[in-house]
Amino acid sequence: MKLSIVIPVYQVEKTLARCLDSIASQSFRDWQGILVDDASRDGSAEICDRYVKADRRFQVVHLKKNSGLGAARNVGLQKARGQYVTFVDSDDYIAEDTFKTLFEILSTHPDYDLLEYPIYEHYGSKKIHLLRFPKKEYTHPMMYWLQGKAYEHSYACNKIYRREVFDEVKYAERRNFEDVAALPQIIRNCRVMATTDVGLYYYCYNPKGITETAKARDLNDLLNTHTRMLKQVMGFVKNRKNRKELDDLVAEYYAKVLNIQLDVYRAGGKPSKYFPMLPYRNTFKLKLLHLLGLKRLCQLHKIFHRSH
User: CB count, 10 Å around CB of 130?
Assistant: First the structure.
């Protein structure tokens, strides 16, 4: 079997059929669909059972108690038997022929351990954005993280993984943004990561989803993931010959992490005592950080947003 598709399911009776139809109708046929029903209380469980009965490539695991998205992904991975694994969230869907075009690439590049493909972000909202990628290979996880800006699209979805990269990797349970925390662990197990400009994942806007309802605690978990990654990044660039080029990439990442810290504070959190003071001043906010300090910048940012 070529592909195992893990589909976490929770309270999605309005979108689940659309998701499963997009998978069942793929021209690529060699797949296993693993539905993990996370103790849904609406009609999702019945929909899962109906699709399993109609198409034997689907199977379902009904969890007895709600355990969260990370736990559902882990259960799906335990059931995966394919050479490769991918995730499709049950309120999203896949464009026609996506898996066929991706496996044409993988058949000619058997060395790829991870292949990332285009994604419509927040499809159905006012901030919809089509995220495209160049045809590019990365042979070091830090280059994929920095040059490929994986930190900006560290979704579990829109990627096909060789199953072995999940050896000794588990998604955090009872924690939001679990996919962001897992990706650095996954890419450390990859020899070659690649991006492509073919295929399409529809990441649909959900006003009740994790991103839209994130609280200070959730954002602080996200911040902690990135501050740990920043330390690894700085260790990577320290003695590299192309330090100047890498410094520009690190500065972009550092500015991104600073924005997360500002969001944490605005949502009711505190300035992190682990937030590093790095010598980058490439943006206005980074310049203010060095001028005012982290706490005063957080306070100023919160006041600014209150007035707008």
Answer: 10
